Amino acid sequence: MAVRKTYLAVIGTALMLGGCSFSSEALWPTLAGEEETTQQNVVANQPVGADAITSYDVAASTEPLTGVSQTGTFVGTKVENMQQELNRLKSALSNHSNELQQLRGQTVAHSQAYHGTVAAISARLQVGTTPGNPVLVQQWNTAQAELDRVNDDIAALNSLANKVAADSTLSTFLLESVRSAYQVSGAVDEDHRQLALLEDETNRTTVLIDRLLNEISESLARQTSYVSTERANLNALALAVKNGEIFGDSLSKRVFQSQAAPASSGQRMAAAPSDRPLVVIRFDTASVKYEQALYNAVNRVLERRPQASFDVVAVTPNRGTPAQVALNANKSKRNAQAVLRSLTDMGMPSSRVRASDATSASVSANEVHVFVR
User: Fold this and answer.
1) Kind and range of the H or E element at 202?
2) What span, in angstroms and rounded, lies between the C-alpha atoms of 355 and 310?
3) Do residues 343 and 251 lie in contact, with contact meaning Cβ atoms separated by under 8 Å?
4) DSSP string, 2-65
């Protein structure tokens, strides 16, 4: 008796009903001459989306094909060999799907540990602490190690992508072999019937492999972007720990906003004129705390103009002997380099900041001016 084909219908709206579950038959055609009914139960409190769909589909379609009838022909022998290859491919696909789910769970655990540590640092900075607090330094080192684990997960995802790409190559070769077998002479009708079933199963497996590859690619893109952003945030957090005060997110979050909504004409911020600096830092004492004010000013500019760049100018008083002016100029340049390093630590790309120096008769102490361009 011919095998009855029953396909699983997944109704999207049903997945959204909390506290409910549903079951449906999932019968895939086999080469055996008997009917099998497999009942799959999907619980509504499991993850809804690409992860759940992939695991479910792969589990439902990677059961090995069995029961190939031996016809004694050359094509019949080829069918048996190709069936074995398909079963190996299905087993590999199932293993790789499970590996993806394990990696996702592992990444979630590492990310939660990382954000928990960062939250503890931020909470302590929020209420105030001493500059370079050794407890916070240790916590920062722990956060960096936890983020490194997420980066290791990305490397594992890359390795998995290569394995699934090899599965894709094998499925393409197998499908071509099945189709070529139709042209071989000396086959009986039963051979072609089994070839048709084998072709259908290979097509389904190929679709699942492509879907798995797409999901891995999307996961890689998300995780790579996530780690890059958090690296910049960690750098900004290191500066905050060093100064004992919290700043905010890395400036790179503003700089690389690719989908920033265009500001209205009333909200656009014009570039600051060359004679009006955005920030003036006067280095008239041994220790000047300027980072928080600098961060706030630059962050406000980037909110309105994500593509803005900045000039850091070391301004030296044009007073005294030439030797005094030269000495002050060297100190002012070092101050400007410190301000530039602070900006890059806050997440500003070095390509968006340039340094220069100038002398002025209107200043009484070494200053660093930051301009928007």
Assistant:
1) helix 189-243
2) 9
3) yes
4) PPPPB-----HHHHTSTT-EEEEE-B---SSSS----EEEEETTSPPSHHHHHHHHHHHH-SPP
- Averaged pLDDT of the chain: 78
Q: Strands 310-317, 353-360: parallel, antiparallel or unpaired by DSSP?
A: parallel
pLDDT band at 265 (very low <50, low <70, confident <90, very high): very low
Residue 308 lies in a domain: yes
Q: What is the pLDDT of residues 78-137, one digit of tens each?
A: 888 899 999 999 999 999 999 999 999 999 999 999 999 999 999 998 888 898 999 999
Give me Rg for the CA atoms of the chain.
32
Regarding whether 172 and 225 lie in a shared domain, the answer is yes
Q: Which amino acid is at 108?
A: V
> Which of 289, 322, 299 has its CA nearest to residue 248?
299
Check which CATH number belongs to the domain holding 310 and give it.
Answer: 3.30.1330.60
- Pick the closest to residue 126 from 246, 275, 36 (CA basis): 246
- The least confident of 5-9, 116-120, 247-251 is 5-9
Residues 175 and 301 in one domain: no
**CB proximity list for 95: less than 8 A, separation 6 or greater:** none
Please say whether the beta carbons of 136 and 124 come within 8 A. Answer: yes
From residue 260, alpha-carbon distances to 228, 236, 267, 305 in Å are 19, 22, 13, 9
pLDDT exceeds 60 at position 168: yes
Domain of 345 in residue numbering reads as 259-372
Three-state SS for 288?
Answer: coil
Token digits of residue 177 = 């072999």
Q: How confident is the model at residue 236 (pLDDT cuts 50, 70, 90)?
A: confident
